[in-house]
Structures are given as structure tokens and as C-alpha cells.
Write a structure and sequence with these properties.
Layout (H helix, E strand, L loop, with lengths): L1 H9 L3 H11 L10 H9 L14 H13 L1 H15 L7 H16 L9 H18 L10 H23 L4 H8 L4 E4 L3 E3 L2 E15 L4 E8 L10 E6 L2 E7 L5 E6 L6 E9 L15 E6 L8
Antiparallel strand pairs: 1-3, 2-3, 3-8, 3-9, 4-7, 4-9, 5-6, 5-8
Helix pairs in contact: 2-3, 2-4, 6-7
């Protein structure tokens, strides 16, 4: 019985992956329709890769994608409508038991599956729900919601929108997902080029790469593209894990900055952008890189 209950909850590790998502994003979830997208990342935490599928539990799947804040609405609806369905009335017609049984069965089936994702099943559920209300009658006369109720709804929507946007621009961004899950990720950086006695990576636009850190310090060296000068000053900005660490003009000579990383940091999301000037163009009129960057992980500097 214990093994059966455990499997009904874990469901071949889909439940474990869903629980891990809830633990990491409890308030605003991972985004509507994003469970399958993030499943490969979280499946690695519990074992080998899993084929793409849902959370095997309708309530858990909804909670994973909406979080606690986004789930307040449907959780409140389930509580209110569930009480309405389970309340027995002497005046209930015989057909009400059929509709009530279908609704309760659907609620129980949703604990171990997600048949509600099918359009036909969803339409059947709502047809039965309205049929039941028509048979037994609404619990009270319909009246407009008070202003404070609408104010609460609007406030909840604003909070959820802000929270979801912050998660999308932060921990749920693809490079940060790659950082946590351990897979490579890079865009905006070109193949290494030798300039002088060192190799640099060309930077076009805002370049991002997940870099393996071998020490607690990161040395960044920047070099502007001379072809893009046009008499205007160039500025380089660099971010480590979303934290702005460099915002300086780029001189003719290479500019080197030493950045302190977190002690427990093993992988760094490095973002680099050169602004100002004009993009350099080659003989074919194709845009060249905005600048160049190289990085390394030196030993910690000695205290004086």
C-alpha cells in the first residue's frame, strides 16, 4: 500500500519533477504551458531524462504553472463549487445524483491524470457542471460583486503580472536555466580570434554565455572594435548573473577588470554589450563585431 501510494504521487518521477518546480518557484509558478519545457531540466535532478509529458495530476500541474498567487482563483472556485456539489438537499431531483457523481468522479480522476486537457472532456465537464446547477438551482440569487471584491481581483492580477514578469526576466531566463541544469548556452559571441598575443571572442549586440568558473575571481578584458569608433566614445557593460559589474568607457588599449564571484558559484552567466560609436562594416558591407572580450579565472589576490 505504501508503494502504491508513493507511485500514485511520484508517477514515474513526473510528480517529483513537479514538486521540485513548486519548491523553486512557489509563488508565481513556471509559466502557463511551461511544464513540458522545463521538465528536462528538473528531471535531471531526480534521475535519467523523461519523455515530455504532464504532471500526471491536474491540480499539481495547475499549481506548478501558476504558483500559489496565480492559483488563488481556481483553488477558491474548487472550494466553493465543491461544497455546493457535495451539499445534499431534500429537494434535489433524481438526476442531480447522476450529475453529482460525474463531477465527483472527474475531481478524483484529476488526482491521477489530466483528462481535462482534452477539449472534448473539458466541454463535457462544463456541460455537466451547468447541468447540475440547473437541476438543483443556484445557492443564492445572482447579484453584482462588491467593489472591494473587484479591487481584490485587480490587485491579485497586478501582483501576479509583476511576479511573473520578474521570474521571466530572472530565474526563468534560458541562460539561468542552463546555469542551474548544467547544459551549455551561448549567443552573440563569435569564434575566438587572436588579437596581439591573446585570444578574444567577438561580441555582437548583447552577448550571453554560461561559463564554468574555476575560481572565485573572474578577470574580464575588453577591447573595442576600432572600425566602429566614428569619433564617438565606446562604453562596455558586463553583467555576472544579472549583476552589473562593468560600466566603463573602452580606451584604445585593452581594459581589464577583476570581478569577485560568489564563493559557491560554479557557473557564471556572463553578458557583455558595447554601446556608442557605429558598427564596423567589412568590405561587403556586413556588420562586424562591436568589440572583443576574453576572460579567465585567476587565483585570489593576496591581501596586503
Amino acid at each position: 500500500m505504501r508503494g502504491f501510494a508513493s507511485e500514485m504521487w511520484n508517477r514515474n518521477r513526473y510528480g517529483l519533477a513537479a514538486t521540485a518546480m513548486i519548491r523553486q518557484f512557489p509563488l508565481f509558478g513556471v509559466g502557463v504551458g511551461s511544464f513540458q519545457v522545463l521538465l528536462p531540466d528538473f528531471a535531471r535532478l531526480t534521475g535519467p531524462p523523461l519523455p515530455l509529458d504532464n504532471a500526471q495530476n491536474w491540480y499539481r500541474h495547475q499549481f506548478v504553472e501558476f504558483g500559489a498567487v496565480g492559483s488563488l482563483g481556481w483553488l477558491a472556485w474548487i472550494a466553493v463549487f465543491g461544497r455546493f456539489v457535495l451539499t445534499r438537499r431534500p429537494s434535489d431531483p433524481p438526476g442531480a445524483w447522476i450529475a453529482r457523481g460525474m463531477l465527483v468522479a472527474f475531481a478524483l480522476i484529476s488526482l491521477v491524470g489530466m483528462s481535462g486537457q482534452e477539449i472534448g472532456v473539458a466541454l463535457t465537464f462544463w456541460t455537466v457542471a451547468f447541468w447540475y446547477v440547473w437541476l438543483v438551482g443556484p445557492p443564492q440569487p445572482v447579484r453584482p460583486a462588491p467593489r472591494r471584491a473587484w479591487a481584490a481581483v485587480v490587485t491579485l492580477l497586478v501582483v501576479f503580472t509583476v511576479g511573473t514578469t520578474a521570474a521571466a526576466l530572472g530565474a526563468l531566463r534560458v541562460p539561468f536555466r542552463a546555469q542551474r541544469a548544467g547544459w551549455p548556452y551561448s549567443y552573440g559571441f563569435g569564434d575566438p580570434l587572436r588579437i596581439g598575443d591573446a585570444e578574444y571572442k567577438p561580441v555582437t549586440g548583447r552577448a550571453v554565455e554560461v561559463v564554468d568558473a574555476s575560481s572565485g575571481w573572474m578577470a574580464l578584458t575588453f577591447l573595442a572594435n576600432p572600425a566602429g569608433g566614428s569619433g564617438r566614445s565606446r562604453t562596455v557593460r558586463a553583467w555576472c548573473d544579472g549583476r552589473l559589474v562593468v560600466d566603463d568607457p573602452v580606451p584604445t588599449d585593452p581594459l581589464t577588470k577583476l570581478i569577485r564571484l560568489r564563493d559557491t558559484q560554479k557557473r557564471v552567466v556572463l553578458e557583455v554589450s558595447f554601446t556608442g560609436g557605429a558598427p564596423g562594416l567589412d568590405t561587403a558591407g556586413i556588420r562586424g563585431p562591436d568589440g572583443f572580450v576574453r576572460w579567465g579565472f585567476p587565483d585570489p589576490p593576496r591581501e596586503r
